[in-house]
Amino acid sequence: MNMTSGTLSYNGGQIYYEVAGSGKPIVFVHGFTLDHTMWQSQVEFFSKDYKVLTYDARGFGKSSLPDGPYNHAADLRVLLKHLDIDQVHIVGLSMGGRIATNFALEHPGMVISLTLMDSALDGYKSEVDWNVHAKEQGLEKAKENWLNHELFTVTQKRPEVVAALRSIVERYSGWHWLHHDLQDPSDTCARDHLHEIDKPTFVIIGEGDLTYFHNISKVLVAGIPDSQKVVVPDAGHMVNMEAPDKVNRLLACFIADPSRS
How far apart are CA 65 and CA 235, in angstroms? Predict the structure, then answer.
């Protein structure tokens, strides 16, 4: 697999990225506390036929920590321009789905298709206790609390996925648990503007994910005109890691011809 890596300097920070393969571009956007390595199975599969971009969002992985106001969608836009990518299939999981949705609303001309896996959504009130008590119990214990969170109940049944997830979370700085996030609010409340997304959209969710994310998936499909949904059996929140073969087949079919899938 032909892979190159680099770092983009923008808005007072650095965004780490990797590019593999060639062809029409796909960008994968990772979830909270995670980084670009969560997409390893997808990179290996799709780089045979596509140009695959993975990157670490600001504050995660090898990218720099926030030191002032920032916006994930703006970071992604500048990264794509830096790589001379004018249009892209965008795929996001959880926090990455929220970023992808905001990007599709703010930069619709740059989006070919949108895939949202176990996605979060701006404007949808949280129904889950996300506190891992980092300030009270310390970062190491907070990471254990996070890995044992109900979010990963189904994931815990797959030791190989748990090991990969643990490795990623161990690299997480914990910055967002210990500091006030400086992220600029999106220009729009995405939930109220889903009807404006005019690109083919594929919603994927693990059958065993939290009710909270299942409810969001229903809102996404009801709100986005050209959308479809698949529930992946025997998978939870980390659907791309827990059921990589199934997810890769579904995604390949959709991306090959989004308008007809």
Answer: 32
Q: What residue has token string 């971009």?
A: 53
Rounded-to-integer distance, Cα 218 and Cα 87, Å: 27
Are 21 and 48 a contacting pair, CB within 8 Å? yes
Contact 92, 72 (CB under 8 A): no
What 3-state class would DSSP assign to 129?
coil
Q: Collapsing DSSP states into helix, strand and coil, what is residue 176?
A: helix
pLDDT in tens, 6-65: 999 999 999 999 999 999 999 999 999 999 999 999 999 999 999 999 999 999 999 999
Query: What distance in Å separates the CA atoms of residue 95 and residue 103, rounded to the nearest whole number?
Result: 12
261: three-class secondary structure by DSSP: coil
CA–CA gap between residue 119 and residue 224 (Å, rounded): 14
- Comparing C-alpha atoms, which of 158, 150, 146, 156 is closest to residue 243? 158
* pLDDT, position 156: 96
Burial of 145 (0-12, 13-18, 19+ CB in 10 A): middle
Which domains does the chain carry?
3-128+181-256 (3.40.50.1820)
CA distance 253 to 261: 7
d(CA 29, CA 19): 13
Nearest residue to 151 via CA among 164, 138, 136, 162: 162
Distance separating alpha carbons of residues 51 and 20, to the nearest angstrom: 6
DSSP 205-249: EETTS-HHHHHHHHHHHHHSSSEEEEEETT--S-HHHHSHHHHHH
- For 64, phi then psi, to 5°, come to -75, 160
